[in-house]
Amino acid sequence: MPNQDSLLHPMANARQQQFPPEPTRSLPYVAADDMVLRIRQVADRLGVARTTVYSWVRKGEFPKPIQLGGGSVGWLTSDVQRFLEQRVRASRVPAQGG
Q1: Does domain 29-91 have CATH number 3.60.10.10?
Q2: What is the pLDDT of residues 12-57, one digit of tens each?
Q3: 75 φ/ψ angles, rounded to the nearest 5 degrees
Q4: Could you tell me which residues come within 8 angstroms of residue 23 by beta carbon, excluding any fewer than 6 positions away?
């Protein structure tokens, strides 16, 4: 027999079934102001070709994209920024010897 809440609010059970409870494992934190960039935007921001970005991903040199659905992927602005910061730091390491 249905409980009284489900009789008063027929969508209550549907919502509960549609949206499962939060998983127990912790999820990566995504800042509210973090945006998703598509491949063209990522390539433009880095000043390289789109094929270069995908090549770096395959080699493990660049973060993997997140799945957006429908075959679409994107990258978080924070991931792209972190990659740029690492590249800047690596390029400004003082030369040994000299």
Answers
A1: no
A2: 444 444 555 555 556 667 788 899 999 999 999 999 999 999 999 9
A3: -125, 145
A4: none
